[in-house]
Amino acid sequence: VDETNVCKEFSDLIFLKNTHFKSFERSRASGRPWEMSSFGEAKMEKLCEGRAHEWVQYNRTQLSRIYPKGSRVDSSNYHPVGAWAAGCQIVALNFQRPGRPMALTHGRFHFENGGCGFILKPRGMREPAAGEGGGEGGASGRSVHAR
């Protein structure tokens, strides 16, 4: 790719850094909006069941990627709805296997928002909670204009 043809504002926007998740407390104290942590489906389900409020709050300001467990050698899928409800941004599925999880994914990303494959989080997950600022670690808005 010829990097001289990439708009700097766009390039600055899409930078992500993979970061190992240590704890909710550490993420609140030092997490940055451009950092992304990956979680296996079992960890995601455990967080949804045991620490749902903290998990949702984490996903308001941090990026999370959920992936199927490696033992799914038949390319089966977990149900993505729990991850979506918690605000997880990237919910990976095995596209080789049709079924209910893929039908839900197709319906959600094909029919919502004009079929562009991107859906905004609900307003309540995009705005700072009461008492939070919209600073570097918060959910502040930024505009980028592309030509």
Describe the structure.
- Strand 3, helix 5 and strand 4 form a beta-alpha-beta unit.
- The longest helix is centred in the last third of the chain and has 12 residues.
- 37% of the residues lie in helices and 10% in strands.
- It has a 4-stranded parallel sheet.
- It contains 7 helices and 4 strands, in the order αβαβααβαβαα.
- The chain is α/β, with parallel strands linked by helices and 147 residues long.
- The C terminus is likely disordered.
Helix/strand/pairing class, anyone?
Answer: alpha/beta
Shape assignment: globular
Neighbour order of strands in the largest sheet: 1-2-3-4
Count of DSSP E strands?
Answer: 4
Order of helices and strands: HEHEHHEHEHH
Q: On the 0-100 scale, what is the average pLDDT?
A: 82
Residues in β-strands, percent: 5-15%
Uncertain runs: 134-147
Q: How far do the termini sit from each other?
A: 19 Å
Total count of helical runs of at least 4 residues: 7
Q: Largest sheet, described in full?
A: 4 strands, parallel
Kindly list the characteristics that best describe this protein.
4 strands; 147 residues; four-stranded parallel beta sheet; 37% helix; alpha/beta
Q: What's the arrangement of secondary structure elements?
A:
Layout lengths: L7 H6 L3 E2 L5 H7 L4 E6 H10 L1 H10 L1 E5 L13 H5 L4 E2 L8 H12 L11 H4 L21
